[in-house]
Amino acid sequence: MRLKIVLSGERGSLSLPLQYNATVQGFIYGNLSGALASWLHDRGHAWGRRRFKLFTFSRLFGRRRRQEEGRIGFEGPVHFYLGAVEAEVLGSLAEHLLREPYVRLGKARCLVEEVAVEPEPQIDDGKPVLAKALSPITAYATLMAPDGRKKTYYYSPHEEEWGEAIVENIKRKARALGWTADPEEDLKGAVVRPYRVKSADQKILRFKGTVVKGWMGLYELRMPRPYLQLAYDAGLGAKNSQGLGMLRVINWTSQEDKRIA
Q: How far apart are CA 252 and CA 216, in angstroms?
């Protein structure tokens, strides 16, 4: 399930940090009920030592212009999408935004133009899905350098390990949710691979001082429907609550989807 959120700057424009993912994440936490925000931020769903927030959000869409000193400007309204496994998260956010005519996106005071529930995509069990990244998808491994320090290696979608890491991530999310199904059995033969991904689709982000590498582009996914729905709601790959891994399922009969593809 996901929401479309439309905001506009108080004076018709917005100025945000060029690396705005942490700003949007703060906006989400700041507009949830206090108890829910605390639980989601501090706990979430646990599997072993890993904790999953199981929400994700897209990049900001609107008329943009690069500004000086690491900032980006938007003219007119901007919108983004927020997906989550728990309807309670989306419900709490929507209720707060619809109650408050003005909210803060970072330091910017914004008018809430629209909060709408997005229609669910058509996902047929067992059939491949073509999906477009609405925010970069990341998959990585933590390696040990010769000097004993840990090093993060980010996979390319063109490496076999990229798809394998993403499928393993989906398994962990399912287990964190306490699914009674066996992800190991269910995801045998699962496919996550690039359909149309160019070198320009690689994006290097900085989230609270940490460099993260991810990929935009079009991808083919094949796995049982519940796991595809989980990837759609919570995000594909890692670091979803930092605004990574949001997908849009392509419907070739939709004029809008034809344009974005």
A: 19
For residues 154 and 140, the answer to whether their CB atoms sit within 8 Å is yes
Give the pLDDT of residue 251. 65
* Cβ pair 236, 137 in contact under 8 A: yes
How many whole angstroms separate alpha carbon 41 and alpha carbon 107?
A: 21
Look up residue 228 and give its two tokens.
């595809």
From residue 82, give the alpha-carbon distance in Å to each of 3, 28, 182, 189, 235: 5, 9, 28, 29, 10
Q: Residue type for 234, please? A: A
pLDDT score, position 261? 47
Q: Strand, coil or helix: what is 131?
A: strand
Look at residue 126 in the predicted model and tell me its pLDDT. Answer: 74
Q: State the pLDDT at residue 143.
A: 87
Question: Could you write out the three-class secondary structure of 55-123?
Answer: EEECCCEEEEEECCCCEEEEEEEEEEEEEECCHHHHHHHHHHHHHCCEEEECCEEEEEEEEEECCCCCC
Positions in the chain whose pLDDT score sits under 70: 251-261
Q: What is the pLDDT of residue 122?
A: 86
